[in-house]
Design brief:
Largest sheet: 5 strands, antiparallel
Subcellular location: Secreted, Extracellular space, Apoplast
CATH architecture of one domain: Sandwich
Organism: Actinidia rufa
GO cellular component, one term: apoplast
Number of strands: 13
GO molecular function: manganese ion binding
Protein name: Germin-like protein
Number of helices: 4
Structural class: alpha+beta
Strand content: 25-35%
Length: about 220
């Protein structure tokens, strides 16, 4: 009897390991896969064409844009400088990327999600009020005020934000678990979609008057990303 339990346990563990393996991203089967625009001389992998490895060069793995402060004179008071596969072709298939976020005094990176990545953000200058909201039905809010050298994690797909609580500019660096994390800014997507979402849908969803929805849809929703 004991031996049968043993074999059943082994079988269950084996099945679990197979499920876990298939639930994660596959590991690359090559050293790198530099994204290329020329489809005639490349192989399509992870949404990008791959350059012949023999033609890869150091510049394919390099980006110099994270040191330069960005202009934050815009409606939301922030600007994101991405360093993903669009800027660094060598990131293709590697599953990582970075971003620099500059904030004006009392500027914010509005509530948004990354559909394909978790994020860890570290403050370099200033102070930021940051947070994320869990999924339904709890919708719990987790927040923290961060100072230079402090970090905070935003789980994949959850709505999160950053707000500069200080009277001076702030700077943060974010690392994300995808070479192309994507971003959906909530207000932009809901009230600035093209074409517009029906006011009947939005008045019912937000339980507000149609005039409120019309007003919000008439605004210019600034894309700080």
């Amino acid at each position: 009897m004991a031996s049968s339990y043993y074999f059943v346990t082994i079988a269950i563990l084996g099945l679990a390991s197979i499920v876990l393996v298939h639930a994660s991203d596959p590991s690359p089967l090559q050293d790198f896969c530099v994204a290329a625009n020329d489809s005639m001389s490349a192989v399509f992998v992870n949404g990008k064409f791959c350059k012949d490895p023999k033609l890869a060069k150091a510049e394919d793995f390099f980006f110099a844009g994270l040191l330069t402060p960005r202009n934050v004179s815009n409606p939301v008071g922030s600007t994101v400088t991405p360093a993903n596969v669009a800027q660094i072709p060598g990131l293709n298939t590697l599953g990582i990327s970075l971003a620099r976020i500059d904030y004006a005094p009392y500027g914010q990176n509005p509530p948004h999600t990354h559909p394909r990545a978790s994020e860890i953000l570290v403050v370099l200058e200033g102070s930021l009020y940051v947070g994320f909201v869990t999924s339904n039905p709890d919708n719990r809010l987790f927040t923290k005020v961060l100072y230079p050298g402090e970090a905070f994690v935003f789980p994949e797909g959850l709505i999160h934000f950053q707000f500069n609580t200080g009277k001076t500019n702030a700077v943060a660096i974010a690392a994300l678990s995808s070479q192309n994390p994507g971003v959906i800014t909530i207000a932009n997507a809901v009230f600035g979609s093209n074409p517009k979402i029906s006011t009947d849908v939005l008045t019912k969803a937000f339980q507000v008057d149609k005039n409120v929805v019309d007003y919000l849809q008439a605004q210019f929703w600034y894309p700080n990303n």
